[in-house]
Specification:
The protein is an alpha/beta fold. The protein has a single domain, classed as TIM Barrel. The chain is 40% helix and 18% strand. It is built from 14 helices and 15 strands. The protein has helices spanning 19-22, 30-35, 52-66, 77-80, 89-104, 120-124, 133-143, 145-148, 161-176, 190-205, 231-247, 290-301, 319-338, 380-391; strands spanning 3-6, 12-16, 70-74, 108-112, 154-159, 214-221, 224-226, 255-259, 263-266, 269-270, 307-312, 343-349, 367-369, 376-378, 393-396. The strands form four sheets. The protein has an eight-stranded parallel beta barrel with strand order 2-3-4-5-6-8-11-12, surrounded by eight helices. Helix 7 (133-143) packs parallel to helix 10 (190-205), helix 9 packs antiparallel against helix 10 (190-205) and helix 12 packs parallel to helix 13 (319-338).
Length: 399
């Protein structure tokens, strides 16, 4: 049965994107280089992506017209600092125009300062695990300050540090020929995790971020569910993958929760998706209730820190399944809120069908994008979600 819940005053209601996945032509980034290394992990390069570097106004126009009140997007370090200590004022001005453009359209911008990608030169010197990476990140934040120092109430320092650390482990395996596990996900690169925590702390303590009213970072939550008797096997996996990074958010103004599915744990570790389960185009289990568990787990480890759902969605070509998934996810979210979990916002992933780190097939967007003409076409899910923002009422449950 569907039920409704009025959104609290100031509740953020938006959709998310990231620079590399939507802008196109991000040729100076480490990911552009990785896309052209002839690895089986990459099915196709990002190319022009959604051409949002030029079409961001159209993207924002659509979100505003649909009823959304907020937009989460990222700025690209590789464009702002193409060479060490060499900053592009044109790129900084471009992203500042995006912040101002959001306000002109009645959208509050949540700006992510690092969403997976770094400049090539940063990766070539050893990436996050190299000495001084946090210093370089702090230097970049200082240079990019004109983008977000005013007019941005929420800034995210780093998106999904656990996934960044996993990518580092995958990249190392690719270079060395190491075999990755066939079930579950590979372990994180510990040196990268430690460096990201230091970089986040540098950003949090930076005087540059002080004009920004609220700062935090977003962690990918796996909604771990150990089978009976497998609790001991689950504990160290959850500790490395999530808990340490969630605990780093204690004292932040907010914590971003990103949830898509659950991870079942058996006595020997992560289990594959059950054979009988519905799978999404990303290969994940259709399990919308993961969102409710994710916010509860995050709140338990970060007492007193408000939560914002910065990503939640599903890769599917069937928009009716997107609406069903999101309705059930929102039901689990509002149930957690009814139980006292302090959630301040919800951002759907993604605003656009975009580049999903190696291929375009997993379509997460509520707005379709023609790969040749770049024409944008809102899906029924976009109108359905946008209406909730316009009416400030969440209708969840049976869709």
């Amino acid at each position: 049965m569907a039920h409704t819940r009025h959104l609290p005053d100031g509740f953020l209601w938006g959709a998310s994107t990231s620079a590399h996945q939507t802008e196109g032509g991000n040729t100076n980034s480490d990911w552009w280089q990785f896309e052209h290394m002839q690895t089986p992990l990459i099915k196709e390069p990002s190319g022009d992506a959604c051409d949002s570097y030029h079409r961001w106004r159209e993207d924002m126009d659509l979100l505003s017209e649909l009823g959304f009140t907020d937009y989460r997007f990222s700025i690209e370090w590789a464009r702002i600092e193409p060479e060490p200590d060499e900053f592009s004022q044109a790129a900084i001005a471009h992203y500042r125009r995006m912040v101002e453009g959001a306000h002109e359209r009645g959208l509050r911008p949540l700006v992510t300062l690092h969403h997976f990608t770094t400049p090539r030169w940063f990766m070539e010197r050893g990436g996050w695990a190299a000495t001084g990476s946090d210093d370089l990140f702090a230097r970049y934040l200082t240079a990019a300050a004109p983008v977000y120092a005013t007019g941005v109430e929420h800034a995210c320092t780093i998106n999904e540090p656990n996934m960044v650390a996993m990518m580092a482990a995958v990249h190392r395996a690719h270079l060395t020929g190491q075999q990755l596990p066939t079930a579950g996900m590979p372990l994180l690169d510990g040196a990268t995790s430690d460096a990201l925590i230091r970089a986040h702390a540098r950003g949090r303590s930076s005087q540059v971020l002080r004009p920004t009213r609220a700062y935090g970072w977003s962690v990918a939550n796996q909604a771990y569910q150990p089978l009976p008797g497998a609790e001991a096997a689950a504990a160290p996996i959850q500790r490395q993958w999530e808990d340490v990074l969630l605990e780093a958010a204690r004292g932040d103004d907010w914590l971003g929760v990103q949830s898509y599915t659950r991870t079942r744990i058996g006595p020997d570790g992560p289990l594959p998706v059950p054979e009988e389960a519905e799978r999404t185009l990303s290969g994940w289990e259709f399990y919308p209730q993961a969102l409710g568990q994710a916010v509860r787990d995050s709140a338990a480890l970060t007492p007193g820190v408000p939560l914002i759902v910065t990503e939640n969605g599903i890769a599917t070509a069937d928009d009716t399944r997107r609406i069903q998934y999101t309705s059930e996810a929102l039901e689990s979210l509002t149930s957690a809120m009814d139980d006292g979990i302090d959630v301040r916002g919800y951002f759907h992933w993604s605003a656009l069908d975009n580049y999903e780190w190696g291929r375009y097939t997993p379509t997460f967007g509520i707005i379709a994008v023609d790969r040749e003409t770049f024409a944008r076409t809102p899906k029924p899910s976009a109108a359905w979600l946008g209406a909730m923002g316009r009416e400030r009422v969440v209708t969840a449950g049976a869709a």
